Amino acid sequence: MSQPANTTSTIIPCLRYRNALAMIDWLCEAFGFQKNAVYADGDTVHHAQLVYGNGMVMLGSTSNAGEWGKAIVQPDEIGGRETQSACVVVADADAHYARAVAAGATIVIDIADQPYGGRGYACKDPEGHYWWFGSYDPWAEHADA
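Above: the chain's sequence. Below: its structure in token form.
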């Protein structure tokens, strides 16, 4: 069995956007991400890293060049659906919700206490990618574990 790397975060969601530069700014404003690295030529983002606490998402501009580009579709190309999404642990779900709503996020599951613990909500960003934000920490010990 292969061992994971000894690093801060071993799983990093990757997204592609048609207007990646604008989405980088929006994700920082709406969700509180911070730019860690952005490699771009003009309007094309080859690779960007946004961080939130110890978590990270990587993103780039859409392209159908190469094997990876041919395999990835945007939500509007498949009826507004997604095949995966990021779950982000936040300290205050209500404050995060208010920030996302103020920035224009589309709420798809309203904020609520969750039966497994914590409080959270789901939303879509302007290009249709789904996100879950909540206070439930799956790394914390739980009474029913």
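The two ends are 25 Å apart (CA to CA).
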